[in-house]
Design brief:
This protein is globular. The chain has 2 domains: 244 residues, TIM Barrel, CATH 3.20.20.380; 59 residues, no CATH class. It is built from 11 helices and 15 strands. Helices cover 34% and strands 20% of the residues. It is α/β, with parallel strands linked by helices and 334 residues long.
């Protein structure tokens, strides 16, 4: 069994420092533009913050991974290639890519640059991962959140590429890299523009029926005074279906695979990814502390590993909807 790397989100310089100081092996971040899939106002890094973040991480033996995980178009190709060039110049430890054309550019122009396949690449089979490895030199792949544990194990056994899986954080509608819901509602795709449900299309409005959240005029949800109004994304809205109102596409809950750590470790998973670049440094600190302690314990004694109640309580406090699920990893019928 090899040590699993803990890969934590850094939506800002304070979040990066918090992650590193609480035990992250790697942090992942993005530039302040559409080259990354968390292109929200107030998030991400300019050149000065990026340089300071890299300095802080490297001084503490942590790695910095740059997400360039959106898809350039013919009219803006130069912006994405310039981002690859900047990553190489800054000394980024690896670039997380989804677009094959950008992979080819990176491999040709910066052969020393380590490349990871983003979850946005939607590679759910070892054949797909091996294709990216063979043609573009991909060294690690982040698996989409659609595979059972048995399927994850099959992928690991059939590829030389390191495998990274999501361990904790928000879920999506399970079509990473292919979701068209935001584009349908707003005309802006997270795959090209870097933001699902961009803030300029979001509205909160207090009405006699409760707090209503809308996305480009579309009613996504309605909350009473005892509920906290969530951010309006189509996949996590409540909709009227045949006269019944409920979370028709996906419930707001967080993935939490803490109890699966020994199995993931024995299967050969190389890294655990924590979702949440849009979350606060306080979230990053809490989740990083818990997962650092859990990974260290599982590495020392996988067979004797037990999840502490305090760990679960701490994670549930920062979970979406204050609840958690094993997601696709657990399929009792398979």
């Amino acid at each position: 069994m090899s040590q699993i790397e803990l890969v934590c989100p850094a939506g800002s310089l304070p979040a990066l420092k918090t992650a590193v100081d609480n035990g992250a092996d790697c942090v992942y971040l993005g530039f302040k533009d559409a080259t990354n899939a968390r292109n929200f106002s107030g998030l991400n890094f300019d050149d000065a913050a990026m340089k300071e973040g890299i300095r802080h991480a490297h001084a503490r033996s942590a790695k910095v991974l740059l997400a360039l995980n959106t898809y350039p178009q013919s009219g803006n190709w130069a912006k994405w290639t310039a981002a690859v060039d900047k990553a190489a110049d800054l000394g980024i430890d690896a670039v997380i890519l989804a677009d094959p054309g950008l992979m080819a550019y990176a491999q040709r122009t910066h052969p020393q640059l380590r490349l990871h396949l983003s979850v946005q690449g939607s590679a759910t089979s070892y054949e797909a991962i091996n294709f990216y490895h063979r043609h573009f030199g991909i060294q690690r792949a982040v698996l989409p959140r659609v595979l059972s544990l048995a399927q994850v194990e099959e992928v690991i056994a059939s590829t030389p590429v390191e495998i990274e899986v999501f361990g904790f954080g928000g879920l999506c509608v399970m079509v990473e890299g292919r979701c068209a819901l935001s584009a349908y509602a707003t005309g802006e795709s997270p795959n090209c523009n870097g933001a699902c449900s961009p803030g300029k299309h979001v509205r909160w409005e207090q009405t006699p029926k409760g707090m209503e959240t809308r996305l480009n005029g579309i009613l996504i949800d309605r909350f009473d005074d005892t509920e906290r109004a969530g951010y309006p994304t189509l996949c996590k809205g409540r909709f009227d279906v045949n006269g019944e109102t409920y979370y028709a596409i996906e419930e707001p809950t967080s993935l939490n695979t803490l109890e699966l750590l020994p199995t993931l470790l024995k299967a050969g998973v190389r890294a655990i990814k924590i979702e949440g670049r849009q979350r606060s440094p306080a979230y990053v600190a809490e989740v990083t502390r818990v997962w650092r302690a859990a990974i260290d314990r599982a590495t020392r004694d996988a067979d004797g590993f037990r999840v502490e109640a305090a760990w679960m309580a701490a994670l549930n406090k920062v979970s979406e909807g204050q609840s958690h699920t094993l997601g696709a990893y657990y399929r009792p019928w398979k």
